[in-house]
Amino acid sequence: MRLKFQWVLLVSLAVLSAGADDKDAADVLTNEAPSAERKFLILTVATEETSGYKRYQRSVKINGLPVKVLGLGEEWKGGDMANSVGGGQKVLMLRKELELHKDDPEKIIMFTDAYDVLFNANEEKILEQFHQFNARVVFSAEGFCWPDPNLASKYPEVERGKRFLNSGLFMGYAPELYKILNDGEIANDDDDQLYYTKIFLDEKKRGKLNIKLDHRSEIFQNLNGAISDVELRFIGTESHLENTVYNTVPLVIHANGPTKLFLNTLGNYIPKSWNAEEGCLNCWEDMNSLEKKKPKDFPKVVIGIFIENPTPFFEEFLHKFLALSYPKDKINLYIHNGASYHAKQIAGFVESHGKEYASVKLINHDENVKEWHARNLGIEECLKKKCEYYFNVDSLAQIDNPHTLKLLIEQNRPVVAPMMIRPYQAWSNFWGSLTTDGFYARSIDYMEIVQGQRRGLWNVPFVTSIYLVRGDIIHNPKTKPSYIYNLLDADMAFCTNMRNNDVYLYVTNRLDWGHLVTVDNFETHHFNNELYEIQNNRWDWEKRYLHVNYSQNLDTNLNVTMPCPDVFWFPMVTERFCDELVGEMENFGQWSDGTNTDPRLEGGYESVPTRDIHMKQIGLEPGWLHFLQHYVQPLQQRVYEGYWNDPPRSTMNFVVRYRPDEQPFLKPHHDSSTYTINLALNRPKIDYEGGGCRFLRYNCSVQDTRKGWMLMHPGRLTHYHEGLYVTKGTRYIMISFVDP
Description:
Blueprint lengths: L4 E2 L15 H7 E2 L9 E6 L5 H13 L3 E4 L17 H11 L9 E6 L3 E3 L3 H9 L5 E6 L21 E10 H8 L10 H10 L1 H6 L2 E4 L5 E3 L7 E6 L2 E6 L8 E3 L5 H8 L6 E2 L3 E2 L20 E7 L6 H9 L8 E7 L5 H11 L5 E5 L7 H14 L4 E6 L2 E3 L4 H8 L3 E4 L11 E2 L1 E2 L5 E2 L4 H5 L6 E4 L1 E2 L2 E5 H5 L14 H11 L4 E4 L5 E3 L21 H8 L15 E4 L2 E5 L3 H14 L23 E3 L6 H19 L12 E7 L7 E4 L5 E6 L7 E3 L2 E3 L4 E3 L6 E6 L6 E3 L2 E4 L1 E8 L2
Parallel strand pairs: 1-11, 2-4, 3-4, 3-5, 7-9, 10-13, 16-17, 16-19, 17-18, 21-28
Antiparallel strand pairs: 5-8, 6-13, 7-8, 11-12, 14-15, 19-27, 20-29, 21-27, 22-26, 23-24, 25-28, 30-31, 31-39, 32-33, 33-42, 34-40, 35-39, 35-42, 36-41, 37-38, 37-40
Helix pairs in contact: 1-2, 3-5
Organism: Daphnia magna
InterPro entries: Collagen_mod_GT25, GT_PLOD, IPNS-like_FE2OG_OXY, Nucleotide-diphossugar_trans, Oxoglu/Fe-dep_dioxygenase_dom, Pro_4_hyd_alph
EC number: 1.14.11.4
């Protein structure tokens, strides 16, 4: 059962700051005890200031809660609680702290874990719910009897609700809690939950101390085994978690067991992180503005460029990288080129632009450094240069927004990735969730994020391809990134190590940053390889090859040029497309002989022969049929209204070459088509002289055709036509007989 979202208002891109800097948070969350007059105190144990701890701080600050942290900076001796039992050290710390409050019968103490807990209510609401229990101590409840399942039968029966005690969340009056904490001996690495469980299962102690469990999550929500019980609700600017099984609104949320990632998702919304009316609230917290800094004072960055596979449109990648709006003398380049295909491009880039950067270190393909080690060496380069940030950029990440690096630095998160997707797909550079074995799983909000329906800053378990790592993470031995973890791929190893060190990974889609190219199935044996990428990388193909004015063809407010009756002229492709298609044909070189005998055709006979090469011969026919469907057919439907055949069919797609000494003209004929397209591939009066097409019935000729422009005319019956003499040079045209 998936978590559901209910929306009251549409997403607004306006965001309001709920910001608080670390200094403000420290005023609430501190090792110094709050005022003795306050009758409510939250205690937690945290030995390190991890990402989870800082999130805990934030939820405390937003709700104005009084918290005292125990153990900060001390050595953790409580065992490996993520994988086994432990936590006795927490009991011992609480025991010592409760000495200060044991004689105050009105003092209410709450204990929570620190790294995997969120508050979504203030003191007043918490105490109101607590008093309704009419108990002296309330423990949270869960559906599993852990760590000793043999004790399950000893628990009191429960008609409705979770039956078993969980020690990650509890609250009660100080005298009773003091007695519980001093009930018996416990070692640092003994299990704290087992300690509390045995006290609760003692009927006399349970009655004397008036201990109850929060069976229906009226205060505390443990998520393990209960993810399907809860739904995130939005009402205006307020957001909360509702337990739909018990119709309650839990106030403190605990990600016990394997539910840490789900809490990360919830933390993207509560408390006061994002709502449907105001959008992203936490985007503006803890920002590191560069606005008032001079370029010479900008942070020093090491940028790691990784070319691990032959990458289409790599030329554009380099152009966009050069266009980054960041002082180049503050950038140290580290380049790993694992693809021999790009060796010349990289060498040319370094030779032409290397001196613009503070430094350049290049590891080439012939050095045989594997990706895992190359990426680790990038981190070492960052340490060597005493960098303040490390920007990982893979060659498949096209940075369309030149301000990307600067804005990511200002976002000031441990690891933050600009969201990029493969255009027209849901494939992105982040995962919203993970399976139990650590692979991709779709989160509850993944589609809304990748489609831009929700804009903001999102805590996620996996990022790849392009991301910024803050320098303090790299310089801290405990959190230093590594791209090796068992036999995982480098990006999965990096993220696994970050998660294991409780370093949060973020992805931001506040703005549009760029996009991903698809490197799968990129063929590199052609003369112009990107020409074949129309289906795999349509977005980039359009940018390189589609005429800048193509979209005007679809504007019904503009007239279409008609040089002859029912003959229409459209700007279609760039000059580069024309040059590369001609180059592809000439490189192939197997032009037909211009006779009626043509073994390429069924039956082997051509009634109107030309000197040509078929698209099928060079492997470009599938891409060309895609072009006909997506770019030609919309124009046909505009000018030949009422005719519809989707997809258009064409078995004759070929480039014709006219030369005075080969075939200078084409005799009058009808085309075997419903309509024909004729795309000019070079320039009249420059590349050739003469040429053109004459429609005999109308005594109308189209000469001086424009390079990259397409003629479209009916095929059979009405538009009997001929190819006019080419008197000098070589003329190339691309022909398709559509729907024969």
